[in-house]
Amino acid sequence: MIESHIKEGLSKAYAIAVAHKAGMNFARPDFDYGFDGIFRDIQNVNGRYCDNGWSIDIQLKATINVLYEKDYIKYDLEAKNYNDLVATEVGAPRMLVLFVLPKDQDQWLNITEDGTILKNCAWWYSLKGLEPTKNANTVRVSIPKEQLLTEVSLRQIMNKVKTGEDI
Question: Whole-prediction pTM value?
């Protein structure tokens, strides 16, 4: 399998695990129209769990190429993806999920009878309302290190969506 597909698969596994730990579904669109997945909220109605209609569209990226600065992770995002993410006239909120892997492929996934370790982690970033770019190739985005995507942060993000707040 080619390296980019391995990265993509591991990043999806991370996003799915975080969604499920947060008590949400992770949906994958049948066709790629700019977004790789959807976090969908679930609610308990009279003892029955069902989709409540709240969702977040995600652009999922996996990379070994980031710059670590004091408070930020810097990543060169493709311009077309950047422009998809800055759009404001959309039905569901959108965010970038950047899964960062170690440079050494042998560290990406380690499975033993004692446990499974998937390295490293992902950060989330909403670009809503930023200026679209005319760049042909990439736009450098600075993601606050505090925006680590965990089951707790995903619940907090979804709660903002449900109250009409920007994420």
Answer: 0.94
